[in-house]
Specification:
This protein is of the alpha+beta class and 697 residues long. The chain is built from 17 helices and 28 strands.
């Protein structure tokens, strides 16, 4: 490893971190726009040697202050990730990233420089102002997680390099920010004693500049090593989970995603459960650590090996079923649940509870704060081997089933189906696609619209940001939720449209789906307090406006179009602007005045409870003339605000949000906007920008 001398900031090489005389300090920080690299430091050292000056005086201020402080504390060596790794060498970079957790763990001291925390946060009278420390971006970065966990001594520094305290001093505050247990922060407990899911949840609210670093920064926390391949994207996190599976038998790695009660899934088990190969919830492994956030929100998943005594608070019926199944299995020498990586998928051997022909519960001897927890499974209809079928995760909108311990959720043990040990396959991850939002990953309707220039509509495909805001526009406390991929939100709500679609019949897309958890039983909220809401948009062409246009112009009606609308005048779908105003959709070259295309868009919101889940094909929303005609919207934009429900807790179906206040309604605010497509010079095609959805309350 390369280290900086704290007196001159010159590079020296050591074969191992435990061979550094007197120990060394490390610098934990947030990267600036430009950081001094190893090669730049070597060039600077050579230049200073020729001029007879000290290189430390010419390095960036951050490095200079870190060297000075370490020197004052008696350390002759300092490690910084900016200039102590040759990032131009793939071999050295891979070796350094795999050994980085060891670098941190063997350091004598870690300086955590918080550039956004002023020095007065340490304050007179010894008062520590929690707000400045809590808001620091240092707590939101991926690589700062191992820098917090691995070193024995972490000293926090303010923006002007004043000491704010150590991680042991502020362990309680750090727990509130990071959800890392206090004994772990104080070194009283080994983090290897915690489940994989709990450790993974610590990274749920953290971000990295490169998507691959979501996995690389966690290698040391799970004690695994793997090649570093920048450019592979989210495949790195899948490789990390596969490496974890090879080193541990802890199945809590699979317990991420939407959570539901045992009674909720039991009440829905008689219905037909559909699944798809697009949703990431259908697969064994998570595409990102952000999906483990529900594990860290007070319901941490623990793995108790078979024959272990049940915790005293785990008295739910499902826990008894789990214990009974595994105790009997151990007597039959069946053993603990196992999972094996094969070319066909992951071969799982565990106990299954059959609720219906399309709904099963997989018992992995895991529990959360409310009792036993299991995974919901749905048989894959494309499975061809009846002896080793393929299952997908999730059933009726629930992936992880938790017995919440409520009395109304308990049933007699004799009424439950008996668990049976079974071997089956699950698919670990979706098929790789270079573009995650490629047409095959989206609904077929979106693919039809986006792969032809003659379609009246196209859908823009950026990701969606969903921040939390109050009614006054200020942000709420807590981290901002990540941006879910478009393919997780845009889904077909009616039968796919055929190629050559010209706007009739209209097409309905589901833009957003979420759920409310009611605080008390009110009208429209079922016994579990769950209420699902879906936001739909219907797109189409107004044929009534087309006929009216032809009648006012005295032209013959052409009927349904059978040719490509190569020009506005030849298109049978053109119409006159009602206000005779020029708009981005108009063509001033027409002898009869400005011509507009009667594209329309209508928005609808539907609410469903557990007795009436969202239908696969809801009816298309009707449109009203001319209010829904896009050409009449100022700048082709229209804003919508929908009051969802008062006195409720909102929980997004993909990502957990901060709890809502006790009073006040929740308002869903979004804007639909369109623009002429540059691929179609006639202006026939409109591009719908995917709306940004905000919540106010």
């Amino acid at each position: 490893m390369w280290l900086l001398s704290t007196d001159r900031a010159e590079l020296h090489y050591f074969s191992s971190p435990d061979q550094v005389p007197g120990g060394y300090a490390i610098l934990s920080h947030l990267w600036d726009d430009h950081e001094l690299s190893l090669r730049e430091l070597r060039a600077l050292t050579t230049e200073c040697a020729q001029m007879g000056t000290n290189p430390r005086d010419r390095v960036p201020r951050k490095l200079r202050m870190a060297c000075t402080l370490a020197r004052q504390h008696g350390y002759a060596w300092l490690w910084a990730d900016t200039c102590c790794i040759d990032k131009t060498s793939q071999t050295e970079l891979s070796e350094a990233l795999n050994a980085m957790f060891r670098f941190y763990a063997l350091s004598a001291i870690c300086y955590a420089y918080l550039r956004d925390v002023p020095s007065d946060s340490s304050a007179a009278n010894g008062v520590f102002f929690h707000a400045d420390f809590t808001r620091s971006l240092w707590h939101r970065r991926g690589w700062t997680l191992p820098e917090l966990l691995a070193p024995k001594l972490v000293v926090f520094l303010s923006s002007d390099w004043k000491v704010l305290g150590t991680k042991s001093d502020h362990a309680t505050l750090l727990h509130d920010i990071t959800r890392i247990p206090v004994p772990i922060l104080r070194g009283e407990q080994d983090m290897a004693e915690l489940s994989v899911a709990q450790r993974m949840s610590w990274a749920a609210n953290r971000e990295t500049t490169r998507p691959e670093d979501e996995a690389y920064c966690l290698m040391g926390i799970f004690g695994v090593n793997m090649p570093v391949l920048y450019g592979e994207g989210e495949k790195a996190f899948y490789r990390l989970q596969e490496a974890i599976m090879k080193t541990t038998s802890d199945p809590s790695l699979f317990f991420w995603g939407p959570v539901g009660t045992y009674k909720a899934i039991l009440s829905r088990s008689h219905r037909e459960s559909s699944h798809n190969h697009i949703s990431v919830d259908s697969y064994l492994l998570a595409p990102s650590p952000t999906l483990f956030k529900s594990v860290g929100d007070g319901s941490g998943v623990n793995y108790a090996p078979p024959m272990a005594p049940a915790p005293p608070h785990h008295k739910s019926v499902l826990w008894k079923v789990v214990c009974k199944a595994f105790v009997k299995s151990s007597r039959r020498q069946v053993g603990a649940p196992t999972f094996t990586i094969t070319p066909r998928g992951i071969l799982v051997h565990t106990a299954l509870v059959k609720l219906s022909s399309t709904c099963f519960l997989a018992l992995f001897s895991c529990s959360d704060a409310h009792g036993a927890t299991a995974l919901a499974l749905t048989p894959c209809p494309s499975s061809f081997d009846p002896h080793h079928p393929i299952y997908h995760f999730g059933a009726h909108g629930i992936r992880r089933v938790s017995q919440l311990g409520y009395l109304r959720d308990r049933v007699n043990l004799d009424e439950l189906p008996k668990p049976r040990w079974k071997s089956f396959y699950v698919i670990p991850k979706p098929p790789f696609r270079a573009d995650p939002d490629s047409p095959r990953s989206l609904s077929l309707s979106v693919a039809v619209m986006n792969t032809t220039i003659t379609s009246p509509f196209r859908i823009d495909l950026p990701s969606v940001a969903i921040p939390n805001k109050r009614a006054d526009g200020t942000a709420t406390s807590g981290p901002r939720p990540p941006s879910p991929r478009l393919s997780q939100l845009v889904s077909p709500a009616v039968s796919p449209i055929p190629f050559g679609w010209m706007g009739n019949p209209p097409v309905t897309l589901k833009l957003y789906e979420g759920r409310f958890i009611g605080r008390k039983r009110t009208k429209g909220v079922d016994a579990d307090g769950a209420l699902t809401y879906c936001l739909y948009v219907t797109l189409g062409i107004c044929w009534d406006a087309q006929r009216a246009q032809h009648a006012s112009d005295g032209t013959a009606e052409h009927g349904s179009p059978s040719h490509s609308p190569s020009s506005p005048r030849s298109s049978p779908l053109s119409g006159r602007d009602p206000d005779s105003r020029s708009s981005p959709l108009s063509s001033p070259g027409s002898p009869t005045g400005p011509i507009v295309f009667p594209h329309w868009a209508a928005v609808s919101m539907r609410f469903y409870d557990t007795t009436t889940p969202p239908p696969a094909e809801p009816p298309a929303a009707p449109h009203s003339c001319p209010g829904d005609h896009i050409s009449t919207w100022p700048e082709l934009k229209k804003r919508f605000s929908v009051e969802l429900a008062p006195d409720a807790r909102t929980r997004h179906s993909l990502y957990e949000h901060a709890p809502l206040p006790a009073r006040g309604p929740t308002i869903m605010d979004f804007e639909l906007s369109f623009a002429p497509c540059a691929l179609n010079p006639a202006g026939w095609t409109l591009v719908m920008r995917y709306p940004r959805v905000d919540f106010y309350y």
